[in-house]
C-alpha cells in the first residue's frame, strides 16, 4: 500500500511539474499503432499523412483545450504561405509572421505573470511550447524552399505533407527537430515496401525508463534542496555555489527527461532509425537533442552550446549564425532569447552565454598550447570542465528564474563570479596582446 501511494504521489508531482511528459507518454501507444498499421499496409501514403496530422490535432485539443486554435492558426497560415508565395520570398514572410504571432502571446503571458500577478496557465504554457516548435518546423521548411531543397506545393493534395509535417503528433509537444525531407522519407518508407525499420519497442522502453528515472532523481534532489537551503553562509564558504550548482543539475534533469521521452515517442512511430551498427544491432540515434553523459562531459563552453539541445542549436546556426555577417554569435543567442519569450532572465542568461562562448574561444586559444604534457592536459581538461559547469550553472538558473527579482538574487550570489571572471579573463588577455 505504501509503494502504491508513493507511485501515485510521484505521478501527481510529475503532472504538476511536467504535464507534457505524461501527455507524450500516453501518446506512445498511438505512435506504435501507426508503426504497426503502416507495416501491415493498412494505411496508404495519404492515410499515413492524415493519421499523423489528425493525431496532432487531437493531441492539441486534449492538452491545450481552447488554446489549440492559437497553434492551428499559424500552422495553416504557414502552409498557405508555402502554397502562395515564390520559394525565394517565403522565408521572410514565414519567419516574420510566426515570430510576431508567437511574441505577442509571450508578452501577454509576461503581462499576466508580472503585472497582473496571475498564476501561470498550464494549457497556455503548453501551447506556447508547441508554438515554438511549430516555428522551428515552419522556418526549416521555408529555408528548404528558399535553398531549393524542397518542392513548393501546387495544390491541396500537394500541401498535405507540409500540413502533416507542421502538426504531426510525435513532434507536437517536444522532440528533436526533424527536417521536412527526413519526415517525407520516414512516411514513405513506413509501409512494407520498402522494408520498414525494425521494431522500436526496445529503444522506446529504455528511453522511457531513462526519462522516469531522471524525473525520480530530480524529485529527490529537489526535495533535498528545499529542505537544506544555503542560508547565510560565510563569505569564503562554497556552500552557496554548490547549492546553486545542484539546483542547476535538477533543472537540467528536466530537459534530459523531456528529450529522452520525446525520442521514445518519435522512435515508437518509426522515426529516428539510423541503420545498423558494426555488430548488426539497429541504431535509433539519428534524431536526438542530447544525452546527459554526452552533454555533461563537455569541457568547453562552445562544445556544450553545440551539444545542448542539439537540433535546436543546429537550427539556430542555420537560421541566424550562417546568414549574419557581423556579431553572429551575439545575434544567434539574442534570437534564441527572442524565440524563448524575452523574459528578463532569458535575455540576460543568453547574452552572458554568448559572451562566455566568445571568451571561451579566446581563452582556449591562448591557454591550450601551454598544456604540453599528458598530465598538464589532464589537469587543464578537468579545470576547464569545472569552469564550464559553473558558467552553465549560472546561465541555466538565470534562464529558468525569468523574473527580475529572482535574477537579481542570483546576480548577488557567489555563483555569479565564475561567468564574470571568465569574461574578464578575455579582456585581460586582449590587453596583453
Written account of the structure:
With 433 residues, the chain is mainly alpha-helical. The chain folds into 2 domains: 44-188, no CATH class; 201-432, no CATH class. The protein is built from 18 helices and no strands. α1 (2-17) crosses α2 (19-39), α3 (45-64) packs across α7 (156-167) and α4 runs parallel beside α6 (122-146). The chain is globular, with a radius of gyration of 23 Å. This is Membrane bound O-acyltransferase domain containing 4. It is a multi-pass membrane protein. The chain crosses the membrane at residues 20-38, 50-78, 90-109, 378-396, 416-432. It is found in: Endoplasmic reticulum membrane.
Helix amount: over 70%
Q: Kindly provide the radius of gyration, computed on alpha-carbon positions and rounded to a whole number of angstroms.
A: 23 Å
Structural class: mainly alpha
Distance separating the two termini: 69 Å
The portion of residues forming beta strands comes to: under 5%
Poorly predicted regions: 3-7
Number of strands: 0
The tally of helices reads: 18
SSE order, one letter for each helix or strand: HHHHHHHHHHHHHHHHHH
Number of domains: 2
Q: Mind summarizing the main beta sheet?
A: none
* Mean pLDDT over the full residue set: 86
Characterize the overall form: globular
Put the structure in a nutshell.
By secondary structure, the protein is mainly alpha-helical. The chain has helices at about 1-15, 20-40, 45-65, 70-85, 85-115, 120-145, 155-165, 180-190, 200-225, 240-270, 290-295, 300-305, 310-320, 330-340, 345-365, 375-400, 405-410, 415-430.
